[in-house]
Amino acid sequence: SLAEMLYCEIDMVSLVLIGNSSTYVDADGRMVTPRGYAGKYFDLNSDSIKEKSQALFIGGTGSDVGKSVINAGLCRIFARRGWLVAPFKAQNMALNSAVTPDGGEIGRAQALQAAACGLEPHIDMNPVLLKPNSDTGSQVIIHGRPVGNMTVRQYHDFKPEAFRKVEESYQRLAAQVELVVLEGAGSIAEINLMAHDITNLKAAALADAPVILVADIDRGGVFASIVGTVELLSPNERAQLKGIIINKFRGDAALLKSGIEAIEDRTGLPVLGVVPVGNFKLPEEDSVALARKPKEKGNGIQIGVVRLPRISNYTDFDPLEQETDVALHYIESPEQLDGLQLLIIPGTKSSLADLGFLEESGLATAIRSYHAAGGRVIGIYGGFQILGNRLTDPDGVESEQAEATGLGLLDVDTVLKPGKQTHQVVARFQQAAYAAGFGGIGELQGYEIHAGESECGIMSRPLLQLLSRSGEPVNISDGAVSADGRVWGTYLHGIFDDDQLRYAVLAPLRAGRAHAPAVHSTQQSLNAELDKLADHLEQHLDIERISSWLQKPESVG
């Protein structure tokens, strides 16, 4: 990278190759700069006509069967084969979200799938995003912007309008690429919800896409779930299905032969492959995956992340978890703070409610004691707000609770306000951040997704200066750091992807250890993992049969 270039020998014949934010180094060491999307190389408002794009739809027998990962792998496979590919999920329900370059909010899974395609994320890849904020309601985000909080019944009434937005997005997206790989949500056969469906078979019909059904064998009952799913569909709906993937297998696939023959006979659908469980370091879509995260201490630097009930964007900490000398685990009780070298309070969809959880569970008292004993504490977004002195919600942005007292580890007061800041951000550390070990670090990138403004008191200083939001120059202070540097917080997500920042955070925790691992590039690691996933699927799926359902257009108009 350019940042590392100055550490190399430079002479008069040195050649510097500059790509863009989508550039990556592939498995053969080649620098690849993929074609872009969203007005950079194509005009989304263009009336130009091209041959109808092709589409594939990845549906599931249930939630968490691996649809998102299969989608990302297929996106990368077809992109490597020369297709201009884009992902699409009509409606996503997730608390792990991402921000597009123009400041829109979409599901984290679609941002990962865009990366698999070599594209920047765009709001048309996930036109409807639901962020649950209670057991019976969600914040509804349309084309990247919140339109309000709705109960289930209110949202059902709103769905015809939501589907019009889905149609608009799909048509714009399909007009610019050669192949759209769509993803469903939950099960395609939830018969109590199918009358209101806008994201499963109705979306597949919109795209005229062959449907691949993914089933998870790891949870058991895979053959019954496949046959049951198909049996619950109408004849017209069954006709949309073209094949089946059995996912997350452990063991000898030959043992499945009789079962595969039986379901192929019962359903008339081919099994396209049995995909073994793979170890891929990819961002998870939502909090359901937290059940797979380690809760017990392992060997290495002990980092704990508080598992808040309304935790959001915990993918922020994946780069830390992937450090070979780090043992990162999620904590739910006060005794789990013992022995930690660093404690992180993550983002949350409801800071006031989760602050109440900390007080009721005894974690608030334990966190204060941990800090008093010399512990280091970081807060991201809602975690940053919780670290402060006082949170107020005069307009009922989160709930009817008007105010609450924070943990008091940062001299910061926060006021929640209507509206949401969603931006990709460029920032630099302010002078006060040197106390936390951030001296000498250049500009860094992250993204904002927050409602509220926080103001430092006399005992804290701003951590960062924002230089741009969504590409527009700004001069705004962000976050806070304590005088001794042991506590800091920020509104920015994604900052641990920055290799220099991550190294600075871990440096004092590594003091006295024999060898610190070499700094690795998070972006190159992500691309390597996506290639690894694609190779895995190429090995275990009948990609040629899937390709036979598609006809590659000659050109994009």
Question: What does this entry look like structurally?
Answer:
With 557 residues, the protein is of the alpha/beta class. It contains 15 helices and 32 strands. The strands form 8 sheets. The protein has a 7-stranded mixed β-sheet with strand order 17-15-18-20-31-30-27. The chain is globular. The two termini are 34 Å apart. Residues 35-50 have low confidence and may be disordered.
Short description:
With 557 residues, the chain is of the alpha/beta class. The protein is built from 15 helices and 32 strands. The longest helix is centred in the first third of the chain and has 23 residues.
Give a topology summary.
Blueprint: H1 2-5, E1 24-25, E2 31-32, E3 54-60, H2 67-80, E4 85-88, E5 91-93, E6 97-99, E7 105-107, H3 108-117, E8 128-132, E9 137-142, E10 145-151, H4 152-174, E11 179-183, H5 201-207, E12 211-216, H6 222-231, H7 235-238, E13 241-249, H8 257-267, E14 271-276, E15 301-306, E16 311-312, H9 318-321, E17 326-331, E18 342-345, E19 347-348, H10 351-361, H11 363-372, E20 377-380, H12 382-387, E21 390-392, E22 403-405, E23 412-415, E24 421-429, E25 444-450, E26 453-456, E27 460-461, E28 464-469, E29 472-478, E30 480-482, E31 487-490, E32 492-493, H13 499-510, H14 522-540, H15 543-548
